[in-house]
Design goal:
The complex is a heterodimer of chains A (493) and B (128).
Chain A (H helix, E strand, L loop, with lengths): L2 H31 L8 H38 L14 H48 L3 E6 L4 E4 L1 H7 L11 H4 L7 H11 L3 E10 L2 E15 L5 E12 L1 H36 L6 H33 L6 E4 L1 H18 L3 E3 L12 E4 H17 L6 E9 L4 E8 L6 H4 L22 H12 L3 E7 L3 E9 L10
Parallel strand pairs in A: 7-9
Antiparallel strand pairs in A: 1-2, 1-5, 3-4, 4-5, 6-8, 9-10, 10-12, 11-12
Helix pairs in contact in A: 1-2, 7-8, 8-12, 9-10, 10-12
Chain B lengths: L4 E5 L3 H13 L3 E5 L2 H11 L3 E5 L7 H10 L8 E5 L7 H6 L2 E6 L4 H18 L1
Parallel strand pairs in B: 1-2, 1-3, 3-4, 4-5
The chains are: A alpha+beta (493), B alpha/beta (128).
Chain lengths: 493, 128
Amino acid sequence: MRKLERNLYLVPIVLIGMAVVAGSLILTGLAQWRGSEAGAWRLPVSACCAAGAVGVILLGWYFLKLSWEITSIAGFLRKDKSSLIEPGGCKALSELREAINGRFSGNSSYITELEKQIGDLQIKIQLLRRQKKNTEAIIYSIHDSVIVVDESEKLLMANEAAGELFGFDFKDSQYKSIVELINNNENGFAEFLSHCRKSKARATRREIEFTQNNEPKTFDCIVSCVYDETEDKKKQVCGVVAVLHDITREKEISQMKNDFVSHVSHELKTPLASIAAYSEMLCDGEANDEETRKEFYSVIQTQATRLNRLIEDILNTSRIESGLIKVEKKNVSLAILIEETLQMIKSYAEEKDIKITGPKSKDMIVFGQVYVDKDMISQVIVNLLSNAVKYTPSGGSVKIETDVDELKGLVRVSVTDTGVGIPEDEVGRVFDKFYRVGKNKSQAKGTGLGLNLVKQIVEKVHGGRVFATSRVGEGSTFGFELPLATEVVESGV
Amino acid sequence: MAEKKVLVVDDEIHIVHVVAIKLRNNGFTVITAENGAQAFERACEDKPDIIVTDCQMPVMTGIELIEKLRKNEDTKEIPVIMLTARSFAIEQEQKEKLQISECLSKPFSPKELLRSIEDILYDKAIAN
């Protein structure tokens, strides 16, 4: 039983008990007082005592009833918070009952309304959480670095790429100062963000350089202002979003293309310059005798051939890359091909006083055939031999060797020189398009296309493999492997 | 007028040859070199009146040659004509800094080259 009920029921019980005891005592007293001198006072006193006892009993009873009503109301209020209190027997409490019911009715609808609002808010909160999750998922999935900063220079959101670039935990850095987070801020990136926000420009674009993993990298950075609407419908900047796209590779490619255009222009214009100059001299009669004129004609002719070959190289490289080149394969004797090529290079080698040797007779392929495009493989061998001669100082040597591996079904051709050599970290790149070894650029001219053409022809067109080894100051070996022809047919060579 | 001496520098032997013929036919003494390093040695030895040099050469480029000439007391005043096949011209700022008298793009006209040489030597003679 609760304390309220206990206290309320105790009072009337005590009162009734007291009344019974008092009544008993009075009757007992009166009985003793009967035969005495009281006489006439006995009746009224007895009546008063009886009335008093009854009154107390009635009071106790009423109090009991009241207690019951109050505890009933209390119990009702505890159990059922939504229903109204039912009318009871005690009229004195009816006003209280009405007041409580009145308050209840008002509260009930208020509570219902509140509960409805709470429900709506909970739904909205769930929707917002889901939207936030979706937004985060979108930003985290972006490969570029993304940073969102608020108007007080605090980080709101960032993705993994941004965390890696700037060196912070992208999930654990919310609301931290962006200046503190960017640990390589020597290029003023944080100030740039601040400037963009203050300028209120819709979007600002700039190329920025950072160091990542000890490597310089270039990024195309676009900073966009985030706008919020104030109460008076005015737009104000509440933050910025920065997206950084790594353009290091694009810049390298662009630079390589620029270098290539520069080189190609030089290579094309050089023979053209000779052709133009000698032609003008002939036209102006500067060649005084027949011998000089013949010399001039010869120069024009060789330079025109040179120009044509260069243009062909450039075009062939492009065609092979795009798969448009016409290939005419047939069974060819590699030994004869090598011998023909050696004759072409011989005069160039002699000019530079370089000894050039071909395969030993025992190494020559007598019966082994390769199924290739003769002109293309001839071009490959010419390129390798001319490179070897180009990068070998006077007095050096170049040799070309062949080796058949019947077990693997392939033939290996290698060109070894005693030239300047190539640094270890650059050997792997020599077959790249436009690539020229740094320190060797001053040694001899070139477009950076020759070895790339070799690679394209051997690997892409013939399914072979190119290789290169080198030591700086000692020389290099360049070569290729081709599959042996599967059946021997009459060679057209 | 004393015969003027021209140093012609180019790694393309045919260019050197045709320019030498043109200049010799017009009364110049011609000395040649096939790269910048060789050209600098010849310039110090023979003290040419003017130098005609290519831009892109092995061992030492035309730009590097001119920079070296300008640092040397004996050669710093020698006027230089640069022949270039580069896709873009040498910037004016660099031209002034290196005191390059003239830049001619390849393919060039031997007649035009001769005219430029004569004009530069004439201006130099007037200045002196």
